[in-house]
Amino acid sequence: QTGSAPNHPSDSEDDEYITNVSIGTPAQVLPLDFDTGSSDLWVFSSETPSSSARGHTIYTPSKSSTSKKVSGASWSITYGDNSSSSGDVYTDTVTIGGFSVTGQAVESATKVSTQFVQDTSNSGLVGLALDSGNTVKPTKQKTWFSNASSHLAQPVFTADLNHQADGSYNFGFIDTTLASGPITYVPISTGNGFWEFTSASYAIGGGSSKKHSTDGIADTGTTLLLLDDTIVDAYYNQVESAQYDDSQEGYTFDCSEDLPSFSFAVGSSTITVPGSLINFAPVDGNTCFGGLQSDDGIGISIFGDVAIKAALVVFDLGNKRLGWAQK
Ligand SMILES: CC(C)(C)S(=O)(=O)N[C@@H](Cc1ccccc1)C(=O)N[C@@H](Cc1c[nH]c[nH+]1)C(=O)N[C@@H](CC1CCCCC1)C(O)(O)C(F)(F)C(=O)NCCN1CCOCC1
Predict the structure, then answer these.
(1) Which of 63, 143, 150, 306 lies 20 to 30 angstroms, CA to CA, from 295?
(2) Rg (CA), the chain
(3) Last residue of a domain, one of 139, 171, 203
(4) Is 233 a catalytic residue?
């Protein structure tokens, strides 16, 4: 069995990617942000204060004949951008791309932080990181993919994200026609609950490859490519008009600049992010914000959407490995 669901950018900047998910019986369809950087499936619901839920599609468990409350269970999560949400837990049937999981933990939000209230492009998240990162207490819950994996043809899913265009999340199969190059696999380290891997080197434009070990995560829930300052400074050194803009908390440059590409090693191969994807978004007039920014020394780098857009990424739970293919 397999599943295939389209995704699309939430806005003109590719800030996040949205996929429709069916929850309950009869199906309640919610637009959700698939996030390989976290492990909770949570939704705006009939339990979310109506002032916070305005503009969002909600899940109403009482309208679903297959919903069950998980008594005594609660959840609470804080993300890298300090947004947060919390609430209680139901189980229900959750269908993604035609594949149904029964008894899936659906975490209902009784509290959401301002960023979530304001971001009406999503009605919650589908966490696709490892089960160990789930925040439900007293009993951790499994992700939708973890529950699905034993019934899928293969215990894998792929992310195909595109700039200002539809893409897909495929479950149980790998559509290699989505890629232009071969898939190179690297092992993941599972200790932190992420799809975490090491990249041994990088290159800027047509320059020589520089040895630099990057410990990073493949994270569809993070918009940008966040790497060590050494790499980021070296990159913008090659961009004539680039400067670090304190107010924007990142590097900006003239929108008319022809940005160099950025390549990172995946095993013995490299993935090249074209400069066009690093010219991320206008901030004002003809100043643009870079899609490559610092990981602020949080101790881990994040290969977010700017990097993932350049590739077909294979999340292979069965073999505990990550595959990258140039698109
Ligand atoms: C807002 C923005 C300027 C466009 S942005 O570039 O910051 N984009 C946000 C995502 C976004 C897009 C659109 C509207 C609102 C928010 C972004 O990239 N946020 C990252 C920023 C970051 C990461 N690290 C440092 N900073 C983030 O928190 N991403 C998390 C998912 C987000 C959360 C907000 C809503 C959208 C989805 C994430 O899950 O990918 C994560 F990995 F970064 C993360 O925080 N994972 C939580 C891991 N914990 C471990 C312990 O147990 C609990 C879970």
Answers:
(1) 143
(2) 20
(3) 171
(4) no
Cα–Cα distance for residue pair 40/43, rounded to 1 Å: 10
Q: 136-163: per-residue pLDDT in tens? A: 999 999 999 999 999 999 999 999 999 9
Range of the domain at 55: 3-171
Going from the Cα of 320 to the center of ligand 1, the distance in angstroms, rounded, reads: 23
Q: Nearest C-alpha to atom 33 of ligand 1 is from which residue?
A: 79
Of 171, 202, 225, the residue at which a domain comes to its end is 171
* Neighbouring-strand partners of residue 165: 162
What mean pLDDT, rounded, does the chain reach? 98
35 is annotated as an active-site residue = yes
Question: Which structure tokens are listed for 259?
Answer: 């940005």
What tens digit of pLDDT does each residue of 160-174 get? 999 999 999 999 999
For atom 52 of ligand 1, which residue has the closest CA?
133
pTM of the model: 0.98
| Gap between the Cα atoms of 254 and 311, Å rounded | 26
CATH code where residue 211 lies: 2.40.70.10
Contact 302, 226 (CB under 8 A): yes
**How many angstroms does the Cα of residue 35 sit away from the middle of ligand 1?**
9
Structure ipTM over 0.95, yes or no: yes
Ligand 1 atom closest to the Cα of residue 79 is 45
List ligand 1's pocket residues with C-beta within 6 A: 15-16, 33, 35, 37-38, 77, 79-81, 83, 115, 119, 133, 135, 219, 221-224, 298, 302, 304
